[in-house]
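[Backbone geometry]
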Amino acid sequence: MAKVKEKDYIKEKALFFQRLLAYLIDFVVVLMIVSLLSVPFVRSNEEEKLQENASQLMEKFTSNNISMDEFTSEYVDIYYHLGRNNGFSSLISIFVGICYYVVYQTYRKGQTLGKKIMKIRVISDDGELFMNQMILRSFLANFILMDIGVYLFMLFSSKYVYFYSAGVLELIQYIMILISVIMVMYRKDGCSIHDKLVHTRVVREK
């Protein structure tokens, strides 16, 4: 739990470009951490082979050497094996995301590194920022919930269920992000979907 003092902030909403740049900075920070931690678990030779197979398959399809059914069957197989090959990296990504966007941001009173650089902060409408607010907010805004869903489908479903479920989850996530961008740009309070759900807002610091 982190108490937020209203006097430390101005009441104006954070500008869209501030939130966007903070988001991109945080994305790069998390990506770098995940990449470093994933190095021991990446089977680069197998991944290069799968990527090469995918390229060759696409060439065959565009040259009309294989049918749509053959292309789909082989592509789903490659996609599934890529997911299995990157299983540890996916787990690390989920773990780092939770640590950074939920734990770190809560105990930094609503700030990630990106938000600190851009001088903005997440605050609660109720005056206190709780970790359960940040869990739901970050799971929706930072792809964590989608990553968990995709990982579980990869572990416990067939390759076809995994392929189509991953596509649906990614589509839902990007639609939510698009709607949130529009809301942040045009709502007077600058609140996105995840802000409205957990009763938070992003404001500028003094």
Observations:
- Residues 1-6 have pLDDT under 50 and may be disordered.
- The radius of gyration is 20 Å.
